């Protein structure tokens, strides 16, 4: 099954371990999946299912690791922290070991108390209370260009909207957003040609977050603020103040999660809608369907490829997995798996209970999912009210980069103005 590399391919490869069958080797580079330049991010990943590969294959790239290729298996691994640990979340493993944000890298039961702190700031009730504020930000941005007849969706909206919302929740100045987004990109798409170089770049971004957060902690400690950062600072774990290093990791994780993934998801979604006017028309004619459609959007446009570390020697999908090895969980292969969702490429706004792992599953299911759903619902409601018909600018094509979180840029939209 091993794919043949082009003659000019000089990417570093790890030798196949003795326990890995030769017919399970498949050359998939999570940071440069084949076909991403011509087919886009999702189709480049879907190729693994179209070739009917086994549920687990082994890639020699990025330090060598397993890849789960089927939705049911991805879900199973996410839900099983006893066999699949979150102590290392990123590939290559050398880079993942440099990641030190909590509670995402914790396993139960230690994880539970820290997750409860995050949930207090991002639970459904708290997010619903922020709806007027979130809607006001969306309306202000949309009204600034709706009558213009065109926009660079990233620069004019998605680079601003979820970030302004999060910066308001965290009580941070928007002037800090560009550098924080750069830190986030360094974490989720670390540059480098070897695992060691990628680890160094990720570690640098991680430390940049920590340095930034250290100042916030010193400024806000003891001042009783109501923002989510102050909530973390003044929380206790088992009746004691949160350990300082864990506090740095928790606040840094909130910043990382709030500044990258929703922006890129919105870019992917809006590029699709611009090329499928029938779907937009369906939502415009039936606005009550928008909230249901949002979950289908998350199924259809997943862009996270996190990982888990195998906690002990086990057998799965007919192969041996050794403690300490890594397994990649591309969420694109969950939502787009026809075994999970019939006709998965179709965006069916009336699909009942779409199956996906876009927010992860199990104890580490994304704490920000309620906010992401609210932001996406408001975007669709307010956009369609102002711009019920729009299209992709002629000749413009999105630019994709793969990583722990994929990036999607160059989304140019246009519409007729009365």
TrEMBL record:
Disordered: region residues: 1-20
Coiled coil: none
Entry similarity comment: Belongs to the cytochrome P450 family.
CDD domains: P450cam-like
Database matches in Gene3D superfamilies: Cytochrome P450
Database matches in InterPro entries: Cyt_P450, Cyt_P450_B, Cyt_P450_CS, Cyt_P450_sf
GO molecular function: camphor 5-monooxygenase activity; heme binding; iron ion binding
Composition skew (Basic and acidic residues), residue ranges: 8-20
UniProt keyword list: Heme, Iron, Metal-binding, Monooxygenase, Oxidoreductase
EC number: 1.14.15.1
Name of the protein this chain belongs to: Camphor 5-monooxygenase
């Amino acid at each position: 099954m091993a794919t043949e590399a082009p003659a000019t391919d000089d990417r570093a490869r790890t030798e196949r371990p003795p326990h890995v069958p030769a017919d399970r080797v498949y050359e998939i580079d999570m940071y440069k999946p084949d076909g991403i330049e011509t087919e886009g991010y999702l189709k480049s990943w879907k190729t693994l299912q179209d070739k009917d590969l086994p549920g687990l294959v082994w890639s020699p790239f990025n330090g060598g690791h397993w890849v789960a290729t089927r939705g049911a298996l991805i879900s199973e691994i996410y839900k099983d922290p006893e066999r699949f640990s979150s102590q290392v979340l990123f590939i290559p493993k050398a880079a993942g070991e440099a990641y030190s944000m909590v509670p995402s890298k914790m396993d139960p039961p230690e994880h539970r108390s820290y997750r409860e702190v995050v949930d207090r700031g991002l639970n459904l009730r708290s997010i619903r209370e922020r709806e007027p504020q979130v809607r006001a930000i969306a309306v202000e941005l949309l009204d600034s260009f709706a009558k213009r007849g065109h926009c660079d969706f990233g620069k004019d909206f998605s680079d601003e909207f979820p970030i302004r919302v999060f910066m308001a929740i965290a009580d941070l100045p928007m002037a800090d957003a560009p550098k924080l987004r750069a830190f986030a990109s360094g974490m989720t798409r670390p540059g480098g040609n070897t695992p060691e170089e990628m680890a160094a770049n990720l570690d640098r971004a991680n430390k940049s977050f920590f340095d930034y957060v250290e100042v916030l902690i010193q400024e806000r400690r003891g001042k009783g603020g109501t923002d989510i950062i102050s909530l973390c600072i003044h929380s206790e774990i088992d009746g004691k103040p949160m350990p300082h290093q864990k506090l740095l990791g928790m606040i840094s994780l909130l910043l990382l999660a709030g500044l990258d993934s929703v922006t890129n998801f919105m870019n992917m979604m809006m590029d699709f809608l611009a090329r499928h006017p029938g779907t937009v028309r369906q939502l415009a004619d039936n606005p009550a369907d928008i909230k249901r459609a949002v979950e289908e959007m998350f199924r259809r446009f997943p862009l996270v490829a996190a990982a888990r570390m195998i906690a002990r020697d086990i057998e799965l999908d007919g192969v041996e997995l050794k403690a300490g090895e890594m397994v990649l969980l591309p969420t694109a292969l969950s939502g787009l798996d026809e075994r999970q969702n019939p006709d998965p490429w179709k965006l069916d706004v009336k699909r009942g209970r779409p199956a996906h792992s876009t927010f992860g599953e199990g104890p580490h299911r994304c704490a920000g999912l309620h906010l992401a759903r609210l932001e996406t619902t408001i975007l669709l409601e307010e956009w369609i009210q102002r711009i019920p018909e729009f299209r992709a600018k002629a000749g413009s094509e999105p630019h994709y980069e793969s990583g722990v979180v994929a990036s999607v840029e160059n989304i140019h939209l246009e519409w007729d103005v009365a």
